[in-house]
Amino acid sequence: MESNQLQSGTPAPYGRACINCSRAKSKCILLATGNGCERCQRLKKDCRPSPTVRKRNARSSASRTAQLEAKLDNIVSLLQTNGGPTGIPADWDVALPTTGQNASSQSQTCASSCSLPSGGIPTPPATVSAPNSCSVEDLCSTLPIPPETAEQTLSYFRTENMKYLPFVHIPSHMTSQQLRQEKPFLWLCIMAVLMPGSIQRESVFTKITGTIHQKLLVDSSPSMDMLLGIMTFISWTTYARRPFLNFYAHVVMGLVCDLGINKPVPTEYSTMQAFKSAVGVKQHIPTTRTMEERRAALGCFLITSRIDALRWNPHLEESLSILMNAKECPEDERLVSLVKIHLVMDRVYHLQRDGDSHSPATFYTKAFQSQLKAVKSTIPAHLQEDRSILLYLTNAELTIHDVALQAPSTPNSPELHRLESLYTSLQAAKSWLDLWLSVPVENYTAVSFTIFFQFSRALVSLYRLSILEDPAWDKTLVRNTANILEYLDRMANMMKNCADHISVPHQPEWNIFEKGQVMVRCIKEGWEPKLMEVWYPSLPSTEVENDFNQPNPALSDILPITGFDDAWMMEIFGSM
Length: 576
Fold this sequence. Notes:
Layout: E1 10-11, H1 19-24, E2 29-30, H2 38-42, H3 61-82, H4 103-106, H5 136-141, H6 147-159, H7 176-182, H8 184-193, H9 201-218, H10 224-236, H11 245-259, H12 271-278, H13 291-304, H14 314-326, H15 330-354, H16 361-378, H17 387-406, H18 416-437, H19 449-467, H20 475-481, H21 484-501, H22 512-535, H23 553-558, H24 566-572
Antiparallel strand pairs: 1-2
Subcellular location: Nucleus
Main location: nucleus
GO molecular function: DNA-binding transcription factor activity, RNA polymerase II-specific; transcription cis-regulatory region binding; zinc ion binding
């Protein structure tokens, strides 16, 4: 007992009391002679030290995990034996020991349905499964696309789709296989949106949306591959049972903010970096934003500009300037021009939304015209007559002069500035529709959804100009310059040809152009009575009001009004 180190009256160290004192829960005072303790000597008992030293048991995390797994196995075994209810979802699949009695039940998949006993409590299948996740590469492997077709599709995407929304640069030397290895989800979305019409479209659409939900909402694993893939998917998808653009546009904005590419890389002097250093978080050496990230952020601004645009900030301005000066790829010049045009339109949208009753409309119209003229002067010469650039410019003119359409008329003293704006709007609407109808049928799949919003604006503006009640406005001139009924007929025919080009067997409700064809014809049915009344007032009135609040049965069957995206619906019907 190491008595030579102990003095008389010294209490025994913790855990080293003798057996008698320990049992009596009495304090053990050791003798200086080392021959036991005071209590045992007084009671004339044999003083023996305790055989063991008390120790604290450290529970390892591994043993605790093993205990939990054992408990879970025991619970599952009891459920199998008793057939009782469980709270584990039926679409999970955990491997269980195979026995002669449950071997058949274990072969069931996660899709097995639960049986209902007489008590009404669902009895789960014997198999409980782990979440069935499918990697992006596995999903790519399900697309039966020959290598030659994949190369042709990628080449088409570079040369045609990028004309309308150049938010990504895929070098000409990069093969389809290389893109698939580097950015599998982007590759998958490119192949999906340009896949020839087939019955597999619904399956591919469902799998892609499922992958987006899994990666972003469940796994919370954002990446540039996911961002570029989603931007491609929502910009060129020509088949969908229900609208999805509003939802995914906000997903894109959230993803851009999550990746942080809408702002500069944090410096070591920033508040957050200082906080991370203080708490001991490992710091990464700050780097500058890549050209890929800058293009994606500016592309997000274009995609979301007509819904709820990504907020413009100094970093995006810097990215615009860097892309403009670097000229790393030919499409950067196009992207810069489109963003500049949209910045002018964005200011118009803010004015229309916030309103300003203190200044005349002509003041803003002239200011925006000057800004748009300045943007035109910066567009490279080889893009001055480019169809996509002209579509954006013409749409910007319509947006600017839309103020004149909304202003009330003054019969006694017509404003010359307002009449000038109305005539400019008429020419712009006609020019836009002519450009739209000049696109070859096989190339409409390359047109992004940002252009489809412009289509609705041009159509609505021309209709409003055709029925505008203003003594100084010549409606006959409008009809002779741009007959909206003729344009609607041409558009319906164009939509039909496009629908045939990308036909989806047995699934017309998935074809955007099938829906568009029905929509255009129904719009004509709704507008024609009013137009006839305005153009030919001497004819008997049809007494048909142009009321879009009344549902059109033909339109509701294939294109329910409640199924439109809000932005799309507001563009077409909200300004009537």
